[in-house]
Design a protein that fits this description.
Pfam families: NERD. It comes from Oceanobacillus luteolus. This is Nuclease-related domain-containing protein. The chain has 340 residues and is an alpha/beta fold. It folds into two domains: 207 residues, no CATH class; 86 residues, no CATH class. It is built from ten helices and 16 strands. The strands form four sheets. A six-stranded mixed β-sheet has the order 1-2-3-4-8-10, sandwiched between helices. Strands 7-6-5-9 form a four-stranded mixed β-sheet, with no helix packed on it. It has a three-stranded antiparallel β-sheet with strand order 11-12-13, with no helix packed on it. Helix 1 runs antiparallel to helix 2 and helix 9 crosses helix 10. It is globular. It starts with 13 loop residues before the first strand and ends in a 14-residue tail after the last strand.
Length: 340
């Protein structure tokens, strides 16, 4: 069946584009500031590697979905709350007939779906490892999204799901019902065509205002967040103090005139201190006092710290609480550390 796509310049409908996840930003900052001999260091390093690989896989699959953007409404990295529980969805593609959930998996080793035992495993040649079953995961997302739409008086639009394997070189094996798995699991490049095939079959079904539904969902989306210091039993005093270099991750940049210089790689960065203040707000708590940031940045001059805080673009001083706080409109809801 041949399906024609018509593109119009400026007609893209990706209403929430993927950025580096807040949790990944936190783990990267934590790894850089945690002494290598800390008991949690290797586990934190592994979290950075796993989450980086997952993010890279999502970006790879996003590229394939660009073909759908002119006609559908796409939300990347949706995070919603239903019945007091937060749930994440890698991709929501909303069409005039349906909502499609696409969960992305990035595995280099061959993967195996066993429909007889409901198992999902990988085999890297040295050992076979079991993981949470992706189909059970995406089915739970489907149910949570259905409940969320019901709670918010949204249309009872059909919801389908797929699992996109990001690496085209990853071998997908099946033990048991091949047809069941192949109807859900595909390499990322094939998912858009499965969606278009579904749409063709539903062309006589009821239609919905996909832009309106998409923007309603977008209004309620938040970045997934959690306190990773508390989760790993790490106290702020364990973190290495100093201004961190964003190029080589060395903590301990030196102030030279109007800039900060990294003694390891030579990077000159005028915004390095502001970036490290942002890390404190992200890792420790969303407010601070002069003494706390003086210790965190390892700066001896109270005047220098006071000037940094006064000039920080996203902070204001609360006379009532006698502390520095994030401006209400100073931070985008999608918290990404500045790269300028």
């Amino acid at each position: 069946m041949k399906i024609a796509l018509h593109y119009q310049k400026g007609d893209t409908m990706i209403i929430r584009k993927r950025t580096k996840p807040l949790i990944l930003q936190k783990y990267e900052a934590l790894q850089a500031r945690l002494p290598p001999n800390s008991p949690q260091y290797q586990a934190i390093k592994q979290q950075v590697e796993l989450r980086t690989r997952g993010h890279q896989g999502e970006l790879t699959v996003d590229h394939h979905f660009n073909i759908l953007a002119p006609k559908f409404t796409i939300i990347q990295d949706a995070c919603l709350t239903s019945n007091g529980q937060t749930f994440q969805i890698d991709n929501l593609i909303i069409s005039p007939h349906s909502i499609y959930i696409i969960e992305v998996k990035n595995f280099r080793a061959p993967i195996t779906f066993d429909t007889d035992l409901n198992q999902f495993t990988t085999d890297d040649g040295r050992k076979i490892s079991g993981y949470k079953h992706p189909i059970a995961q995406v089915k739970a997302q489907q149910l949570k999204l259905q409940n969320w739409l019901y709670e918010h008086n949204q249309p009872n639009i059909p919801i389908y799901y797929f699992i996109a394997v990001s690496e085209p070189s990853t071998l997908i094996n099946v033990i048991g019902d091949h047809e069941k798995i192949s109807s859900i699991v595909q390499h990322g490049e094939h998912i858009p065509w499965k969606i278009l095939d579904y749409e063709q079959k539903q062309k006589n079904h009821p239609t919905y205002q996909h832009q309106k539904i998409g923007h309603f969902i977008l209004k309620h989306c938040r970045d997934f967040d959690k306190d990773i210091l508390e989760e790993w039993g790490i106290v702020p005093e364990q973190l290495v103090p100093g201004v961190r270099c964003r190029k080589c991750n060395r903590v301990g940049m030196e102030k030279v005139k109007w800039s900060w210089i990294c003694p390891r790689c030579g990077l000159a960065d005028r915004q390095a201190a502001n970036h490290s203040i942002d890390e404190y707000l992200m890792l420790v708590k969303p407010w601070l006092r002069n003494k706390e940031i003086l210790n965190f940045l390892n700066i001896s001059s109270r005047y220098a710290v006071s000037r940094l805080l006064k000039n920080h673009p996203n902070l204001h001083y609360s006379e009532k609480r006698r502390r520095w706080e994030k401006k209400v409109n100073g931070f985008n809801k999608r918290y990404t550390l500045r790269s300028d």
